[in-house]
Amino acid sequence: MSWRRALRETARSGLRVERTSLTPFLAIRGACGVALTVGLALYFGGPTLAVSCAFGAFASGTATFQRSWRPRPVLALGAAAGLALSTFVGYLCVPWDAAFLALLAVWAFAAGMAWATGPTSGVVASLTVAVMLVAVTLPTSVLGALGHAALIAVGGLVQAALIELFPVRPWGERRDTLADALAGVADYARRLRHDPRAAFDPEPLMEARDAAAVTRREARRRPRQLQGYRALAERFRPVLASLADPVVGGVPSEGPERDRVRALLAAAGTVLDATARAIRRGEPVRIPEDALAVLQVPESGPVLSGPARKTAIRLIALTDDTVEAAQEPVEVTRSFPMPRAVGSGWQRVDPSERPLHLHRPSVPGLLPVALRALRRELRWSSPILRHALRLAVVVPLCRFLGELLPPEHGYWVALTAVMVLRPDFSQTFERGVARFVGTLAGVVIAGSVTALTSPGPYVSAALAVCSIGMMYLLMSAGYIIVSACTAAYVIFLLGIAGSEWAQTVPERVWLTAVGGLVAMLSYALFPTWETPRLRDRLADWLNANGRYATAVFDAFAYPENRHPRQVRDALLDVRASRTAWDQAAGRAGAEPVRHRGVNRRAARDAQLALVTMGRVTMLLEAHLPDPKAKHSSSAAEPSLAAKTSPAAVYARALAESMGAASEALRAGAPLDWSRVHDALEAWQSAEDALSPVELRAADLLTDALDELAEALVP
Fold first, then answer.
1. Based on the structure, what is the number of domains in the chain?
2. Mean pLDDT of 336-342
3. Which residues are CB-neighbours of 95 under 8 A, at least 6 positions away?
4. Cα distance between residue 199 and residue 219, in whole Å
5. What is the predicted pLDDT for the residue at 703?
6. Are residues 163 and 180 in the same domain?
7. pLDDT band for position 345 (50/70/90)?
8. Which among 159, 160, 155 is positioned nearest to 493, based on CA atoms?
9. Would you say residue 144 lies in a domain?
10. How far apart are CA 112 and CA 418, in angstroms?
11. Rounded to an integer, what distance in angstroms lies between the CA atom of residue 537 and that of residue 607?
């Protein structure tokens, strides 16, 4: 894609306004937090202190609207602590230009590296830099700086207190996420009725897994409905796909058996939809009787046979588990057993007594996790490190440039740059365009209102609160809306301190343009392109698929030695690798650089081959043997049976070929699957090859590997 086209496409994306569901009560609560802090500070402390307090309440409230599964009060308090610290340190260094520029460089670098722990941390860290740039322009002494920092922290405390005192739909986001996952599996079941090879989107299940991770305190309070259903949804996925597939399941495309399969899929979708609806609303599950009647073995006897019959029985068992779980009370929670004191020591709790939940580290426990994430990103090829270096240079440069420009509010250049820059090209250029257009609209509207009404401090405060309320309400509509509301908020807020509209409006328009241009130019000069890394992303996905397939075939070869997490952990790696590829391919598609070995056609064909590889493995996962099952080989010794099992030989050939294939993919060399073909041919010619499901899956998997090799032919 050329630069001209890339800029045009990113500009359109930045100016797009999306329709989204509104959360008025959350917006009102956040705006009330700003109104309360601004009103009290204005009444007791004066305009300058009110502005400082408003920045803390605004930024802390903004942090609570970020996509995160942390408790909202924790986000508000964390943002307030960072804002207070950055403001106080900035006040100490601002009298010396060199010291303040050095501080900006260090703080901006740290804010850029914060993206290593997640986008929420990155956004909040960027807010601390932005607030520092504005707050240090308010005149005060060192003692006054402590007061300003304390008031900014108070703004965050107020937001956190309002969240605790006036909770809006507790656990609501987690309910919606789990319901979306169940509804996604239900939709998958319905689509399989008409298309047995329909694609499955794992993203809702991945979101549900992220949402299911809780701290020990949250585990004691979590509603009963949020426990267990996600695991049921995960177990439905391979069973539904295997039942519908005509090759692995063995059901003809038409006839009584196919009609029975369609009826089972429709009934399973109905049960999952009913469960999703109940979880979303927090009410008991109501399942239609006709769906339950279908999910029973017919009185006339089973219609299906072979692998399809086994899969249908598993599906019926899963729906029975869902119906049984639906009979549980909605809001009953289970306590978290703690270690018991015995004499002078402690007795460990039996693992079987512990509630099963995904553990999320507490805030103190998050520190070693964050340090490990930072160490992983300390390499020159890391987009996070390059983003941090870019910020460390651009923010002080923009601050210095703002001081040289004639307007009084030159800090707006650096503020725009720090809010626009992101680790990837598309977001940076989209936000740059949206920031300029949104700021232009915001300052024009706010400046017109100020010019026509000449509001006093209290009216300006009320208008600022209305602006921030609109921003909270329309946070998900697009960055252009956020920029417009933020610009109006700052205009009205500085109006409290007596700034003239004739000064603020024209200055901020062209200073925003300067900051956005510098930010986008810095990315063009020091880019972080995703296109050259596409082969690495494909290799990671191929490796993950290989581990997943190897784990499943090993489970057939060594059923008694299978670890409960072996297949599950491999599947999670596949999902993470596929998500990384999807994100990388999306970013690369918007970049103005030429491909380096993987053009669009090759990338599309390779993606289809890897998706097929994962789908075939998923189909086979539905037929995993019981851990007590015997080997398919007739050997007397289990160890000898494992060595001579065709599934074991194929799994070993697959695992040994993956390392060389991934390295060849990274280097752009042809892929060699000869060992896999030899193992498959030996399996097909074996006299005791009495495992049709595994053999069919191995054949389909080998075909997918050949398609991948053909797609990547140089």
1. 3
2. 37
3. none
4. 34
5. 93
6. no
7. very low
8. 155
9. yes
10. 9
11. 11
Rounded Cα gap, residues 216 and 220, in angstroms: 7
Among residues 497, 525, 553, which one ends one of the domains?
A: 525
Q: What is the DSSP string of 55-89?
A: HHHHHHHHHHTSS--S-HHHHHHHHHHHHHHHHHH
Handedness of CA 44, 49, 50, 53 (dihedral sign): negative
Q: Is the pLDDT score of 127 beyond 50?
A: yes
Regarding whether 552 and 467 lie in a shared domain, the answer is no
Do 431 and 544 fall within a single domain? no
Cα angle 56, 384, 84 (rounded to 5 degrees) comes to 15
- How many Cβ atoms sit within 10 Å of the Cβ of residue 41? 25
Please state, in angstroms and rounded to a whole number, the distance separating the CA atoms of residues 634 and 612. Answer: 32
Q: How many CB atoms lie within 10 A of CB 676?
A: 21
Under the banding of pLDDT at 50, 70 and 90, the label for residue 344 is: very low
pLDDT digit string, tens, across residues 526-550? 988 888 888 899 999 999 999 999 9
Q: Which of 310, 326, 342 is the last residue of a domain?
A: 326
Co-location of 498 and 593 in the same domain? no
Do 304 and 312 contact (CB within 8 A), yes or no?
yes
How far, rounded to the nearest angstrom, does the alpha carbon of residue 580 sit from its chain's CA centroid?
11
Distance (Å, whole) CA 238 – CA 235: 7
Q: Give the pLDDT confidence score for residue 332 in this predicted structure.
A: 35
Q: Examine the domain organization and report whether 496 and 565 are in the same domain.
A: no
CA angle (684 as vertex; 679, 687 as ends), nearest 5: 115
**Domain housing 300:** 172-197+224-326
Same domain, 235 and 257: yes
Instruction: Please report, for the domain that includes residue 626, its CATH number.
Output: 1.20.58
DSSP H or E run through 214:
strand 213-214
DSSP string, 413-480: HHHHHHHH--SSHHHHHHHHHHHHHHHHHHHHHHHHHHHHH---HHHHHHHHHHHHHHHHHTTTS-HH
Q: Are residues 536 and 671 in the same domain?
A: yes
Identify the band that residue 58 occupies on the pLDDT scale cut at 50, 70 and 90. Answer: confident
Average pLDDT, the chain: 82
Could you tell me if residue 451 is inside a domain? Answer: yes
pLDDT at 300 over 60: yes
**pTM, entire model:** 0.83
Residues 547-562 have pLDDT tens digits of 999 988 888 877 776 6
510, burial (CB in 10 Å: exposed 0-12, middle 13-18, buried 19+): middle
pLDDT confidence bin for 57, thresholds 50/70/90: confident
Same structural domain, 478 and 398: yes
Domain membership of residue 371 (yes or no) is no
- Quote the pLDDT of residue 64: 86
Strand ranges in 312-361 using DSSP code E only, listed in sequence order: 340-342, 345-347, 358-359
**Burial class (CB within 10 angstroms; exposed 0-12, middle 13-18, buried 19+) of 94:** middle
Structure confidence at residue 393 as a pLDDT band (50, 70, 90): very high
Give yes or no for a contact between 316 and 297, defined as CB atoms under 8 angstroms apart.
Answer: yes
